[in-house]
Structure formats: C-alpha cells, structure tokens
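Saturday, quiet lab. Running sequence design on the structure tokens for the scaffold JK sent over.
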C-alpha cells in the first residue's frame, strides 16, 4: 500500500451528524443496520461522492432516504463503498451488513472473547462493523440498539446512557438502547454483550452529578475488581482537582475481557480492558500489577477529556491524546505514590523502550509525517516520548503557565478534532511564549545528546558549563536542527548543599532551569567560592542522553548528597553503566574485570541510610538491564559478554554487601497482611532485590531464604519474585517449585501467564527448547494475546542471551511464530516482530543471522500490512 502522508490531509467531503445502529448479536451471523444522517461538508470538495471505508464486510442492503439503491448507483470494493453521485444535501443512508464475530481472530471490530461480544475500533476497526468514513475528524451522535439472546448475553452495554431496555415478547431475545449525547469519532464506539458479573459503585462529581460506576468481569471474578474500582474513583477526583476535568455522563462502565490486543481502550463511557489490567487479588497479582492497574484505569479515564471530548484530527496527531494522557496518568500515579520513585520507574521504561526505538530502524518522530499501517504507531515514541514533551512544556512554562495553557486548550477545543499546532498555540497564547522551535520535539526523531563540561575557576570564583547539543541522524532525517532543551540543574557544594545559581549578569535561572536552544552555550555562574559538583538534568527533565566530565568521585558524591533524588539514583546508574561497558569489553578480550569498588560503596551507602525510602533503595540496587547496556554500547554487541559482565557485577555486589543485604531482607519484612500500597510495595521491592543479589552471589543464604519466602508467601509479589530467583539461581530446586506453582494456579489464566513468562526468561541454553515445548502445552494458545506475549514476547524481549543465541535459532523461532500468527492476528504478529528492531547493534555473526530471519519474513508472500511495514522498515 502507498504511504499516507500528513501533508496530504484534506477535510472530509461528507459529515455524519447522527449514527443510529441496530445490532442483532449472533455468534456467527450478527446483523448490523446502520442509519447515517449525513450532509456535505462546507469545508470539503463540492459535488464529491460519498466514500465509506469497509473491511471484511458482507453488504446486505443499501438505501438512500428510504429507497433501496440500484446496483449502478454505488460500487463496492474489499475496502470501500462509494456512492457515485449522491444528491448534494442532507440525506440518510441505511446500510445493512453481516458479520461473523466468532471468526474475527484479528480482535478488531466486533469479536467474541470467551463467549463475550466486544468491540475494538481504534484505530480503524469501526469499518469492520459497518461502512463508514472511518477517520477521527468525523464526529457524530450515536444511538445504539443491541439485541441478543437473553441466555447468551444478559448484559448489553453501549456508549453513553441507557435509555431503554426490554424483552421481545414471544421470543428468547431482549434488547437495550444506549444513547451518547457527546459527538464522537467512530473509533470511540463500543458495545458489549455477555454473561458478566458486575461490581457497582457511585461517584458524585464536583458539581454534583451522580455517576453510576460499573465494572463487568467474567462470572466469579467480581471480588478481584475492587482495586480497579478504587483506582477509578481516585482518578475521577484527581482529574477534577489537578485539571478541572469533570465526568460528563450518568454512567461509566468498564468491561474486562481476556482476549485483547493491547492494554485497554477509552471508548466513551464504556472502557474495555484487557482483564490483566482490571483483576487483582493479593494471591494473584504482584505489586507491579496493582500499579499498572491503577495507572491504566486512570489513563483510560483521563482520555475522557484528552482524547474523547477533544480528539485527534487525523492519526498523525495520535500523540495529542496519547502523550498528553500518559503525562496525566504519570502525574496521577506520582501523586498517589512516591513521586521520585515513580519518576525513576518511568525513566527506566523510557530508556528501555523509547531510547531503544529512537536508536534503531523504527525511529520516528513523536508526530510521524507518514505511515503505512497506523496500528504500528502506538509506540513508546508516541506515548512515552510524547509524555516527556508535555512534561518539558510544564518545566519550561512553570506550573501556572502550564495549567493556563491546558485550561485554554479545554476551553478552545472542546468538541473538536484538534492538531498539535492547536495544542501548542494554547500554551503560546496563554503564556506569551514562542513555541515554534519547541515544536521540533514533535517533528525530529532521535534522542538528543547533551555533552556538558563543567569547570570551576577558583581565582574568579566562577563556574563555567559548556553545553553542546546534537541530534543523531535517524531514518529519513539525516540532518537535524537544534532543539529547545530545558536543562534543570544544581551546583552541589562540598557540604552537600545547593549553591545559589547566579549567572554572570546577576540573574538566576527560574526554577533552576537553563534553556538550551542553540548548538553550543557557555553558562557562567558567579560567586562560586568552592568547587561544586554539577547535578545535571535533574528529575530527568529532558529526555536526552547526557555525557559529562563528571568523575567517578563526583558521581559517588552526588549519589550521597544530591538533593534531587532522581539524580542520586542516576549517579549510581551512570557509575554502573560505565563499569558494565568496560567489563563487557574485558569479557570479550579475556581480560580481568575491573573492581567495582566505588559503585559498591555508593550502593552500600544507600542501603545503610535509614532516611531513604526502601522503594528508592531497591531502585538504586537494580543495575542497568542487559538491553540498557547493549544500547549504550551501541555497536558490535555480544549479548553473552554483556550478560557475563552484568552477572559478575551483581555477584560482586552480593558478595561485598552480603551482610547488609541480608540485614535489609530481615528488617523490611512487611508487617501484617498484604497491602498493595506504595510503602508496603517498596519494602517488598527492596527485600526481593536484596534476595536476588544474594542468590546470584551464592551468599547470605540467598537460595535458602528464597525457598523459605516462596513457601511462606501470602502474596503473588513475594511468590513470583522468589520463584524467579530460584529459577535463575537454584537449578536444583527449579522443577519442584515450577510444578508447585502450576498446580496452585492452573485454573487462573493471568497467573499461568506468569508461569509461562518465568520459564521463557531463564538465561540458559535449554530455554529455547523449553519454550518450543511449552507452545505444545495444553494451556498454550496462539489465539490469546496475553499468552503469546507471556511465552514468546517475553522470550524475545526479556531473555537477551537466549533470544540472541549465536546459532540464530532464537531469531528463526521468532520468525516462524510471526509468520504463523500473521494470518490470524497481524497486529500481535507485528508487535512480536518489533523484538528484532535492534538487530543492527549486534556483533557480525548474530547480525547476519537476524538479518536472514528478517529477510525470510520479507520474502514471504501474502504478509499483512502490519508485518510487512515493520519488516520493511527494520531492513531499510
Ligand atoms: N487508545 C488505545 C490504544 C488503541 C490501540 C489501537 N491499535 C489505548 C490507550 O492508549 O489508551
Ligand atoms: Zn491512551
């Protein structure tokens, strides 16, 4: 297919004001009657035909203003329905289509998940339900009548408020009618029909609207929806307080389904979720699961304003809703939990996924200029870097300026389909700031690099920072312009206090933030009587890579004294990464590994500091991952050497700090029964991190402690972490604990996913065979995306040495899986294939094998647009 380009955007020729749907649910023959109230768009082309999108539809009938249309009045292709010469006035189109929800394995449009009818329309799924101008700038008011067998689907849900329901006398069928008063694009349409249990609650909004809340789950699972409900109510309150956003319907429903291509979907008034992000109990969900549920419930709810009330003009503007909404959910979680720890976790993820994406062949701008398959652009760049860009706006404009800009955005664009230009104009107008150069963050891909050199001049009592910025070349963008980068910093004096920041002209940078907008700057601070250590990019205010002339002593100093907790953490990570890169080289050339003394001292100091939050210490003790190390090395990477270097470091830490690690493990046992709150979760993070270091080092009775924890665990966090530690470091115990875990949870699909995932991530040569064997396990199915991601996704992304086996068998296995899945679920297949995106950084042998696997896929006939797009760009 030809690429779609942002510059080719044209407004729609026809608008749809109202959509009346009458849906007769049936497992294999669902009938959809759509009545569209349409009119020519004054901003469109005059006299244009009506072109509607369609995908895998069977057209049963078509009428215009009540008259069946003659065959020569329209034409149908596999992807469209065109009315060649419609009257140029308001008209009503009636379309009847026939679908088979049971055969819908793509999980786009209307499908069945464990017998429940549900929909997924973003980005382009509504065209799989009826013929429609399937683009986000066509906003209509929807009324949906759903009819079904009472037995099969006692629960019938739609967008908006329920306005009618009843039985069909003399039949076994019943119906419900839902009306959504808010005009919306069709990607926000949803319906659900099934046999589901409901958890109910109420929420009264700031202005007194009484909202009925419902969470629908598979029968018998209602007890596990309590945390999600609590998170929902907290999200609703927070959005009123932090952004002045109030809910706008009488009902808000969430439905959890087991088969879902991604996390969740923000359909108006009817969010549909992957049940992984709804269901939780202490015995089945980890602390991380609880945190994800809280964040995703909030994210989808926050879309009600950023996404639904104000939507995107076209799919190039995806970050308008996604980046902004991720920023909002990050801030929510930061307020509910520990702000510094939340930032550390978010930055870890940003680096792991977005920096990696930005450094490889799939790099693209936060707002891409072109795409072939939009589903491939729900990426870390659009979401996470998109959120970082919003965060930088707030850093540059200050809290008040940012809030004023947001208020103006809501006021100006409510009910519209907007663009990034519209969004930025609100901040420019609200604060009188020129954001033209800032807008490059949306257009230029690649992670900017800051090279910073600091020098103290004792004679002049001044401190000079020389700052150079550059943005590396990325696909389609060989040359870059300088960006606007907020550089948040402090000068930390010898006593650990921040020195005053006074520039040579006597001014102080507001909020300690310098603006870097040219290729080169020199900033000179005066009245600096003692040699400071600069703390750079505090809070990771800018999503950049930083190189500086800080010595390892400086980093150790910052790790102890910086008042910015993020940079205390980051100082240790920088030390660790420096060590790991050197150690990887040493492994490859057979040299002795260097001594990580400074690093161990810094970690030991954190562990010994009673003032620190245990969750924070847990992060400090978690060394960069194998893929972080590989990305930083950047070329000629040998994953086995990376693994060996990292394991050596962890062993050294575990050995040198055995006593304090074991002490912390004892000291931080959470008192009383399990609670998922951040403080208790933090203690568990720290304990389990200590345990894993001890077990790796064969010290402090790590393995015995892990076995004890596994057996005594009253919660999934401890059980899973100890299981993982045992699987990695106690091969003798492995079979027994895995069998025990399976027996305990064999009837619980979400926990079984964890069982599959743990086994696929064991870093040893037998793992690929084990993964292959597990694809034949009775519980494995290619039809369930969670299961596929648990076994195969986590093998490809969470087990670098075995996925990147030198013989290329890991790549071949992935290629076979991708090809096997492409016919049934191309979105999932394309996602899995993304695991190969860093193939170019590998050493020659593996690089050749990975390339061969990619070429084999590329050479296969009949690829989906999804896989074809990823493989083509990966090889380009
Ligand atoms: N907007 C959806 C993602 C839809 C993905 C389509 N392939 C979930 C979210 O970001 O909230
Ligand atoms: Zn979203």
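Result came back. Writing it out in full:
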């Amino acid at each position: 297919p030809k690429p779609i380009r942002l510059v080719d955007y044209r407004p729609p020729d026809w608008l749809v004001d109202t959509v009346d749907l009458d849906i007769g649910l049936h497992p294999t023959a669902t009938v959809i009657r759509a009545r569209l109230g349409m009119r020519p768009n004054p901003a469109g082309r005059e006299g244009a035909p009506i072109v509607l999108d369609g995908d895998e539809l069977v057209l049963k009938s078509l009428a215009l203003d009540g008259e069946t249309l003659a065959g020569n009045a329209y034409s149908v292709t596999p992807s469209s329905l065109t009315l060649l010469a419609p009257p140029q006035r308001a008209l009503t189109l009636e379309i009847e289509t026939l679908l088979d929800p049971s055969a819908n394995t793509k999980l786009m449009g209307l499908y069945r998940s464990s017998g429940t009818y549900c929909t997924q329309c973003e980005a382009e799924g509504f065209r799989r339900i009826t013929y429609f101008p399937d683009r986000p700038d066509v906003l209509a008011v929807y009324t949906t009548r759903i009819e079904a067998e009472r037995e099969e689907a006692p629960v019938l849900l739609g967008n908006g408020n329920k306005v009618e329901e009843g039985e069909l006398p003399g039949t076994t069928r019943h119906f419900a009618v839902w009306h959504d008063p808010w005009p919306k694009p069709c990607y926000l349409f949803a319906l659900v029909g099934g046999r589901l249990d409901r958890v109910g609650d109420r929420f009264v909004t700031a202005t007194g609207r009484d909202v009925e809340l419902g969470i629908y789950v598979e029968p018998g699972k209602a007890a596990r929806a309590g945390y999600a409900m609590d998170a929902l109510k907290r999200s609703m309150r927070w959005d009123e307080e932090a952004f002045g956003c109030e809910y706008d319907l009488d009902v808000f429903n969430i439905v959890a389904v087991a088969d879902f291509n991604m996390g969740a979907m923000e359909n108006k008034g009817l969010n549909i979720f992957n049940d992984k992000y709804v269901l939780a109990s202490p015995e089945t969900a980890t602390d991380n699961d609880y945190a994800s549920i809280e964040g995703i419930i909030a994210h989808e709810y926050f879309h009600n304003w950023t996404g639904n009330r104000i939507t995107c003009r076209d799919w190039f503007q995806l970050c308008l809703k996604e980046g902004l909404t991720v920023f909002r959910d990050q801030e929510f979680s930061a307020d509910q939990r520990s702000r510094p720890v939340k930032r550390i976790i978010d930055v870890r993820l940003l680096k792991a996924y977005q920096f990696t994406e930005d450094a490889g062949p799939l790099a693209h701008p936060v707002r891409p200029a072109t795409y072939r398959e939009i589903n491939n652009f729900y990426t870390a760049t659009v979401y996470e870097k998109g959120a970082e860009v919003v965060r930088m706006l707030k850093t540059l404009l200050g809290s008040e300026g940012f809030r004023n800009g947001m208020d103006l955005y809501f006021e100006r664009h409510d009910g519209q389909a907007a663009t990034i230009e519209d969004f930025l104009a609100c901040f420019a107008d609200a604060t009188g700031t020129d954001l033209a150069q800032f807008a490059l963050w949306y257009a230029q891909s690649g992670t900017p690099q800051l090279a910073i050199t600091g020098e103290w001049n004792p004679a002049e009592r001044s401190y000079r920072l020389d700052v150079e910025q550059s943005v590396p070349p990325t696909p389609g963008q060989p040359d870059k312009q300088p960006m606007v980068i907020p550089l948040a910093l402090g000068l930390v004096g010898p006593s650990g206090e921040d020195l005053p920041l006074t520039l040579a002209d006597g001014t102080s940078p507001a909020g300690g933030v310098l603006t870097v907008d040219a290729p080169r700057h020199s900033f000179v601070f005066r009245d600096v009587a003692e040699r400071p250590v600069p703390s750079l990019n505090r809070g990771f205010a800018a999503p950049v890579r930083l190189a500086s002339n800080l010595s390892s002593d400086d980093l150790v100093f910052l790790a102890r004294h910086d008042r910015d907790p993020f940079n205390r953490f980051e100082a240790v990570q920088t030390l660790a990464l420096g060590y790991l890169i050197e150690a990887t080289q040493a492994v490859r050339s057979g040299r002795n590994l260097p001594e990580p003394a400074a690093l161990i001292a810094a970690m030991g100091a954190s562990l010994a500091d009673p003032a620190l939050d245990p969750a924070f210490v847990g992060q400090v003790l978690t060394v960069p991952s194998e893929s972080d190390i590989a990305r930083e090395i950047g070329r000629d990477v040998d994953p086995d050497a990376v693994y060996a270097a990292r394991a050596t470091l962890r062993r050294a830490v575990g050995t040198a700090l055995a006593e304090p690690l074991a002490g912390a493990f004892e000291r931080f046992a959470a008192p009383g029964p399990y609670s998922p709150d951040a403080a208790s979760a933090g203690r568990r993070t720290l304990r389990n991190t200590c345990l894993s270091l001890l077990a790796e080092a064969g010290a402090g009775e790590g393995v015995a402690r892990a076995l004890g924890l596994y057996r005594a665990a009253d919660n999934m966090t401890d059980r899973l972490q100890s299981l993982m530690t045992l699987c990695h470091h106690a091969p003798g115990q492995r079979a027994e604990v895995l069998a025990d875990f399976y027996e305990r949870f064999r009837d619980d699909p979400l926990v079984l996913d964890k069982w599959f995932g743990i086994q696929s991530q064991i870093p040893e040569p037998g793992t690929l065979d084990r993964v292959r064997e597990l694809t034949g396990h009775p519980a494995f199915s290619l039809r369930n995306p969670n299961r596929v991601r648990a076994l195969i996704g986590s093998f490809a992304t969470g087990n670098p040495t075995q996925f990147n086996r030198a013989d290329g068998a890991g790549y071949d296995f992935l290629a076979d899986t991708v090809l096997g899945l492409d016919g049934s679920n191309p979105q999932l297949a394309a996602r899995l294939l993304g695991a190969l995106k860093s193939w170019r950084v590998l050493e020659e042998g593996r690089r050749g094998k990975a390339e061969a696997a990619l070429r084999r896929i590329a050479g296969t006939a009949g690829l989906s647009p999804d896989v074809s797009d990823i493989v083509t760009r990966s090889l380009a």
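Notes for JK: Residues 312-443 form a domain with the Neutral Protease; domain 2 fold (CATH 1.10.390.10). The chain has a mean pLDDT of 98. Ask whether to fix the surface positions before the next round.
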